[in-house]
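Researcher: Quick test of sequence recovery. Tokens follow.
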């Protein structure tokens, strides 16, 4: 074993430019979910990126299978059932351009870091796993068991791809995903995604006319805009000075009657909202400060009482909770639209082992009812936990330690991954604790050294799990 693992460094160094080229091809495809079409369940670009990945793997000598453009599989041995499954996703959250220093869909190497949407979540890790398998094959390693790389296209929007795949095929008995943090994630918090509505009629001469903010439910919104009627730039600017100042405001006169407000914040993953700056909730505060001659400003103020700026723990909703094993609840109001008649908002909650979907729902409904706000839970999953002492986890931890020389321990996260509903499934990398790669935000990146290191980690894990 030691002799094989010793050869990894030289191979990875030689293959680094090919890995970067492969990642560049994947990043260049904006694989954000779009309208479903025949043969394109999650949009045309998710099919394009899936086929690109499978084409690369096939040219490397692997047996590939496209499962109806939902999922692709890449097998080390074509004639054996896999005992290890590694699940990566090729879809990404949108890159709205705000705050990016480089084009988000052009892989850019700068200062030793590779910038682009998906470089860490999860195209970079997918390339690492593919090249880990390729390295073993090129080194002539005869595994005793088959490993299957499973690449999906809908992880960011509900994992319907894996639901479809599991109807078609049985998952291997051991599964991990490189879509979180090292060393090993054995606990994933529960997740709730919901929608709330409030009838708000814009009817005054001085009124809030419309609002649009956010792009996806699982990210802190970096941008928000609204149009107001009957106010001049000076009045709106004065209101912005009383609003949260960690975001920026731009006020433009559209015509004699209307002013447009644009707010720019900082995006972040919904599981770690305190690292972002919420443009939407800041805009709500600004609008609440306006003196409208109808009820719009008052109604927006009521929304801020329960969906409050800066509240990332759900305190105003009465859902604050935490436990020692899985940590604290996190909350973000992420998407909203208002058309002058109805406000529709989306929110994302990640909750610890000590709570449940029903418990959270009951508390929220009780809190918002007095403001005339209707809440609907669109999806909810309970927390996921795997025994930290399982042999599978121990082998993954040993592989991590063998490469990094760091002690391996189990961790809990707020993010939900492909393995959330898979018994025994865990997340294994690819970020490291304390590392910030701007996942779901502007300037997402992975360092070249990191890409090489995780390739070695995954090759070591595959060899130890399937080669003994």
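Model:
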């Amino acid at each position: 074993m030691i002799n094989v693992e010793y050869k990894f460094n030289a191979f990875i160094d030689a293959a680094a430019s090919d890995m970067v080229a492969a990642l560049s091809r994947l990043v260049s495809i904006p694989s954000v979910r779009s309208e479903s079409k025949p043969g394109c369940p999650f949009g045309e670009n998710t099919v394009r990126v899936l086929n690109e990945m499978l084409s690369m793997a096939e040219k490397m000598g692997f047996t590939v299978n496209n499962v109806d453009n939902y999922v692709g599989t890449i097998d080390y041995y074509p004639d054996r059932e896999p005992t290890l499954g590694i699940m990566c996703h090729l879809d990404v959250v949108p890159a709205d351009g705000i705050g990016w220093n480089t084009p988000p869909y052009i892989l850019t190497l700068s200062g030793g870091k590779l910038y682009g949407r998906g470089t860490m979540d999860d195209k970079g890790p997918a390339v690492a796993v593919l090249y880990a398998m390729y390295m073993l094959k090129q080194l002539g390693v005869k595994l005793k068991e088959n490993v299957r790389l499973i690449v999906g296209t809908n992880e960011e929007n509900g994992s319907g791809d894996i639901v479809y795949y599991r109807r078609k095929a049985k998952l291997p008995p051991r599964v991990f995903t490189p879509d979180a943090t090292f060393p090993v994630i054995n606990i994933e918090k529960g997740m709730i995604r919901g929608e709330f509505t409030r009838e708000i009629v814009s009817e005054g001469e001085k009124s809030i006319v419309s609002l649009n903010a956010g792009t996806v439910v699982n990210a802190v919104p970096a941008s928000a805009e609204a149009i107001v009627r009957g106010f001049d730039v000076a009045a709106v600017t004065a209101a912005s000075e009383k609003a949260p100042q960690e975001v920026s405001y731009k006020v433009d006169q559209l015509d004699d009657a209307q002013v447009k407000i644009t707010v720019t914040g900082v995006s972040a993953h919904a599981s770690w909202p305190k690292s972002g700056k919420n443009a939407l909730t800041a805009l709500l505060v600004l609008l609440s400060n306006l003196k409208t001659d109808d009820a719009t400003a008052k109604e927006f103020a009521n929304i801020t009482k329960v969906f409050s700026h800066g509240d990332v723990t759900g305190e105003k909703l009465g859902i604050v909770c935490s436990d020692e094993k899985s940590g604290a609840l996190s909350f973000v109001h992420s998407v909203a639209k208002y058309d002058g008649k109805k406000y529709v908002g989306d929110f994302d909650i990640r909750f610890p082992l000590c709570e449940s979907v029903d418990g959270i729902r009951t508390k929220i409904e009780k809190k918002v009812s007095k403001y005339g706000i209707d809440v609907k839970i669109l999806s909810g999953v309970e927390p996921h936990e795997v025994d930290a002492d399982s042999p599978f986890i121990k082998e993954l931890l040993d592989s991590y330690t063998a490469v990094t020389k760091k002690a391996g321990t189990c961790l809990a996260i707020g993010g939900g991954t492909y393995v959330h509903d898979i018994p025994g499934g865990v997340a294994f990398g690819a970020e490291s604790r304390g590392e910030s790669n701007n996942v779901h935000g502007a300037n997402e990146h992975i360092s070249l050294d990191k890409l090489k290191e995780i390739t070695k980690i995954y090759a070591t894990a595959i060899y130890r799990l399937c080669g003994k």
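The radius of gyration is 24 Å.
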